[in-house]
Amino acid sequence: MEKIRKGDEVVVVTGKDKGKRGTVLRRVDDEHVLVEGVNRAKKHVKPNPVKGEAGGIVDKDMPIHISNVALFNPATKKADRVGFKALDDGRKVRVFKSNGELVNA
Fold it and tell me: Are 61 and 40 in contact (CB under 8 A)?
């Protein structure tokens, strides 16, 4: 079970985008995630008349290492670490380390 999943709201804790908040769009691999509006790069794109794409310079979200992001805790309004807890019915769930509340996602 992953600590950070698609759809989670995360905060960047290090790097040039430190402090930015965004939603995880997808997991690229085990160690990288794509976060909306974070780690943007300029990409030069050639026009493709077959697909109907115009050429030019577009902003593209690039993957960021999972160690550079932390889950956003809405109760404390801060970034928080994630742990795991087994419930009575046998399910394994994610919890915030600071207050022990369940992660809603």
Answer: yes
Residues 4 and 81: their CA atoms lie apart, in Å, by 10
Read off the tokens for 98. 């600071």
Taking only Cα atoms into account, the Rg of the chain, rounded to an integer number of angstroms, comes to 17
Which residue is associated with the tokens 């077959």?
Answer: 50
Which domains are delineated in the chain?
9-76 (2.30.30.30)
Helix (H, G, I), strand (E, B) or coil at 93: strand
pLDDT single digits (tens) 40-73: 999 999 999 999 889 999 999 999 999 999 999 9
Q: Is the pTM of this model over 0.85?
A: no
Task: Report how far residue 10's alpha carbon sits from residue 98's, in angstroms, rounded to the nearest whole number.
Answer: 16
What is d(CA 38, CA 105) in angstroms, rounded to the nearest whole number?
21
